[in-house]
Amino acid sequence: MYRCQKAKLKAFVDGVLSESALAVAFHGYVKHSAEDQMRRYKTYQESLRNLLSSLSEADLAVALSHYVNLLSAIKNTQKSKWLFALLEDIVTFEIVSARLVCETLLKCESLVFTNEDFWCFSFTLIDKIISKIDYKGVRDLLKTILDKAQGMRSSNNVAVMNQFRAIEKVLGAILDRNNCLLPSYLILDELQKNFRLKDLIHIGNLQNLLHPL
Fold first, then answer.
1. Per-residue pLDDT tens for 38-47?
2. Could you say which DSSP state residue 134 is in?
3. Closest alpha carbon to 186 in 194, 74, 178
4. How far apart are CA 34 and CA 40, in angstroms?
5. How far apart are CA 118 and CA 80, in angstroms?
6. CA–CA gap between residue 210 and residue 213 (Å, rounded)
7. What pLDDT, in 10s, does the model give residues 119-145?
8. Closest Cα to residue 15, out of 40, 49, 52?
9. CA-to-CA distance for 83 and 91, rounded, in angstroms?
10. Which of 47, 120, 127, 178: CA 20 to 30 A from 88?
11. 187: buried, middle or exposed (CB in 10 Å: 19+, 13-18, 0-12)?
12. How many angstroms separate the Cα of 147 from the Cα of each of 32, 106, 141, 143, 152?
């Protein structure tokens, strides 16, 4: 069952990538209207929903992990953008929970700042859907996100500015009291328990985000 589902997911991703490659190859020769593009996108939406909606909770977690691993290996920005949009859609349609998607992205071994597109798209998606998660889930995610931020400590800020901004935006959303994602005392508890403040200041303007707390 697992192998069959894994093969179907790979075939789905390969199909999206193949069509994207053809669109690039024949760019300027074949004109696609906005309606055509939307129709194709909706077809992919429906296909992915059908692939995942019938799975048990355990199988869904495994399938999502495989999908994310496939995404992590894509080196084309436009193709990644489309497949991440489909991932966001299955959260919107409540096929998978926002928490499971965020956890799966953060657990992926390829989520390293040197893998720029995957890193930036992952944290952009997390920023979009994290408001759907309860405070206990957000607290668990914060621990992992701070670990990822720690891993950027020795990097050159200018060379990886996009990656800094992507993770900073998520942290900003969590730390913003107006968003009510996590009580301030829990945020401070996590910071004091696991990190030294000076080790976090290297993340862009994080010191400004921490100030209101």
1. 888 899 999 9
2. -
3. 194
4. 10
5. 8
6. 6
7. 999 999 999 999 999 999 999 999 999
8. 40
9. 13
10. 178
11. buried
12. 44, 10, 10, 6, 9
Query: Which pair of tokens denotes residue 64?
Result: 């999502």
Predicted TM-score of the model (pTM): 0.83
Mark 159-182 as b/e (b = at least 16 C-beta within 10 Å): ebeebbbbbbebbbbbbeeeeebb
Q: Scanning the structure block, which residue is given the tokens 């992990």?
A: 65
Assigned token pair, 16: 């999206």
Residues 191 and 121: their CA atoms lie apart, in Å, by 25
Quick one: how far is CA 157 from the chain centroid?
21
Q: How many CB atoms lie within 10 A of CB 127?
A: 19
- pLDDT band, residue 72 (cuts 50/70/90): very high
From CA 202, how far away is CA 197, in angstroms rounded? 10
The two three-digit tokens of residue 99, written as one number: 């928490």
Instruction: Calculate the average pLDDT of the chain.
Output: 83
Structural tokens at position 124: 């952009």
**What sign does the CA torsion over 155, 159, 162, 168 have?**
positive
